[in-house]
Design goal:
Mean pLDDT: 81
Order of helices and strands: HHH
Oligomer: single chain
Shape: rod-shaped
Number of strands: 0
Strand content: under 5%
Largest sheet: none
Distance between the termini: 127 Å
Structural class: mainly alpha
């Protein structure tokens, strides 16, 4: 009888883990949207971008911990869950629903990551181009200043020959 209670606890832990995973994936999706908007702003805000990246990194670490914990617990009750025992019918249905939700959100996340990566590549290309154009402009301006500084020296036009 004790075994039955422990297995119910394990299935509850699995359900809780998947619910947290759905929540974390949703937060990452939201951060990706914010990152994309930050990248698309007319003036790129490096601090804002870095804050989003840091928050996303923490969520990814949390997601990895949830995955590791889920696998460890699942290995303990996999046989019982696969047997489809009627005692666990509700928990199994809930697990299946959550797994489907995690799968759907993961697909949405992967699509969002691809779009974000494309936007990042485009923005970074434009920034590199602007930097290159800026260097060319600075070189041209420097050459112009050098040439013009020689023109500002006016040789005496009138020489007084009386002495």
């Amino acid at each position: 009888m004790q075994k039955l209670g422990t297995e119910h606890n394990y299935t509850d832990v699995l359900i809780e883990s998947l619910e947290k995973k759905v929540s974390v994936i949703t937060k990452i999706i939201d951060i990706n949207k914010d990152l994309k908007m930050t990248l698309e702003e007319s003036k790129f805000d490096v601090d804002k971008f870095t804050d989003y990246i840091d928050a996303k990194e923490k969520l990814i670490l949390e997601l990895n911990k949830l995955d590791d914990g889920f696998v460890a617990v699942y290995e303990r009750v996999a046989e019982i869950l696969k047997a489809g025992n009627d005692e666990y019918k509700d928990q199994i249905l809930r697990l299946k629903t959550l797994i489907k939700e995690v799968t759907d959100k993961t697909a949405t996340l992967e699509t969002g990551e691809k779009r974000l990566n494309d936007t990042f590549n485009k923005v970074s290309h434009n920034i590199r181009k602007e930097i290159g154009d800026s260097r060319k402009t600075n070189k041209i301006l420097s050459g112009y200043r050098t040439n013009m500084s020689g023109l500002n020296v006016v040789e005496p036009q009138f020489v007084d020959k009386k002495k």
